[in-house]
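Dear support,

I submitted the protein below through the web form. The confirmation email said the job was done, but the results page showed an empty box. After a refresh the structure appeared. I'm attaching both so you can tell me whether what I see now is the final result or a partial one.
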Amino acid sequence: MLDDGLIELQVTSVSDTDVVNACGHRRRSLSAQRSQFAGGVAQISALTDKDRADLVFAAKQEVDYIALSFVRRPEDVMELKQLLTARGAMIPVIAKIENRKRST
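What the results page shows now:
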């Protein structure tokens, strides 16, 4: 699913580097799209290109904290911290952990 379920995709094949899919139900998308794969963890960065650009701005503004959503693995937070450190910013990071949803 993309964009919080507004766009549904069905996976048709998977390789080590690619996921090929077909578009199912499509509704109007209003925001930057995030991916969710049923039954698995996407090995994609939690940071978008826009997030990286925003981090440069945040580091210059000397913000108190940075929150990162869609965190699924330690590497997501490590990437963010490395980007901040490279800019000389020692800003604490708050991670919103994303886990597979379980039906009750």
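Response: this is the final, complete result; the empty box was a page-load delay. The chain has two helices and four strands.
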